[in-house]
Design a protein that fits this description.
By secondary structure, the protein is α/β, with parallel strands linked by helices. 38% of the residues lie in helices and 16% in strands. It is built from eight helices and nine strands. The strands form two sheets. A seven-stranded mixed beta sheet has the order 5-4-3-6-7-9-8, sandwiched between helices. It has a two-stranded antiparallel sheet with strand order 1-2. Helix 7 links the parallel strand 6 and strand 7. Helix 1 crosses helix 8 and helix 2 packs parallel to helix 3. The longest helix is centred in the first third of the chain and has 37 residues. The chain is globular and about 50 Å long. The relative contact order is 0.13.
């Protein structure tokens, strides 16, 4: 069995597990609703009389995105905005300014928080929190967020003191992305926000002219690339450009590491070290049948395999609150 077929089998078994889990999940959510009704609280925001009230949702009570209803009739816009506060064990509280809670236009999916962003954020927060507990100090990573949207993952990295280069191609999302990073960032990390079109970057004969690559060059290349919910039907035309972009990032890092080797140790999910020449690439992916058929999934992972990479499933037990987002899986994309 080839690696693509093996990965598809893993995804099938994961979905089979979901079927057996839904009954207990619905019972738990019904109990949650009853308890919230008795308490008179919405279960997620500040209680009345306790200061500022935000419109936000406790991610621990979510089973999927509150905004994950792309067929609704409300157009996303910044004017129909709200705030969501998410608590992390390592970096503390993150407050995110969101766009509308319902989306019809696939051009503005970056204006909402999706399950994949929560899963990615919980994982990297725990990863760096464990590093801090083990080494009693934090190594400064250089992090690139591709398709950052509202910037939850970037904000977690920033609060851990990382150098963060956060990108998106939606002008509306970029406004909220920059605002959210300014609100949540620490002073001990370099943070920048850039507009990045994957097609344009992949077509460049000399990537050193691109502002994102120029920013990464200051830090001897990227240590971690985050891809949160960027693989679905609307982005399919850009998948090949994304793979080319990942290879360009790897080439830049290899070149810069030869000149100035870095001491950043980046552990993989299996405990092994990421090769010094390679970025650590994390892909957080939510299975949505209306957006991605099994054939589409196989096509993407075949594309990854043909580029000399493999997708390694991160065990759900390694992701805090991972059981809450059962439709979302996290992969490491590795060069082989």
């Amino acid at each position: 069995m080839n690696s693509t077929a093996h990965l598809c089998v893993l995804l099938f078994l994961h979905r089979l597990y979901l079927c057996f889990s839904f009954s207990s999940l619905f019972a738990r959510r019904r109990l949650t609703i009853e308890l919230r009704s008795v308490a008179g609280d919405d279960g997620g925001g500040e209680c009345a009389g306790r200061g500022t009230t935000y419109s936000w949702i406790n991610p621990k009570l979510q089973t999927s995105d509150s905004a994950e209803q792309r067929g609704n009739n409300t157009e996303s816009s910044i004017s129909e905005s709200s705030y969501k506060r998410i608590q992390f064990d390592g970096c503390g509280s993150i407050l995110v300014h969101c766009g509308a809670s319902s989306i019809t236009s696939l051009q503005h999916t970056g204006l909402s928080l999706w399950s994949a962003a929560y899963v990615m954020s919980y994982y990297i927060d725990d990863m760096w929190n464990q590093e801090l507990r083990s080494n009693h100090q934090m190594t400064k990573w250089t992090v690139l967020d591709l398709g950052a949207g509202l910037g939850l993952c970037s904000a977690v990295a920033a609060k851990h003191g990382m150098n963060v280069v956060s990108t998106d191609c939606d002008p509306q999302a970029l406004v909220l992305l920059e605002e959210n990073l300014k609100r949540n960032c620490n002073d001990n990390g370099g943070i920048s926000v850039h507009s990045l079109d994957w097609f344009d970057a992949a077509d460049l004969a000399d990537v050193t002219t691109n502002p994102v690559f120029l920013e990464l060059e200051k830090y001897a290349g990227v240590d971690l690339v985050m891809l949160s919910d960027v693989i679905y039907s609307a982005t399919k035309p850009a998948w090949k450009a994304l793979v080319v972009l990942l290879e360009q990032l790897r080439s830049q890092r290899m070149h810069l590491q030869m000149r100035s080797p870095a001491n950043v140790k980046r552990k993989r999910c299996d405990g092994t070290d990421t090769p010094a020449s390679d970025p650590l690439v994390l892909l957080s992916y939510t299975q949505r049948r209306r957006d991605m058929s099994p054939r589409d999934e196989a096509e993407f992972f075949t594309l990854i395999q043909n580029a000399g990479m493999e997708a390694v499933l991160v065990p759900s037990g390694h992701i805090p609150h991972g059981q809450t987002y059962m439709l979302t899986t996290l992969f490491e994309l590795r060069w082989v």
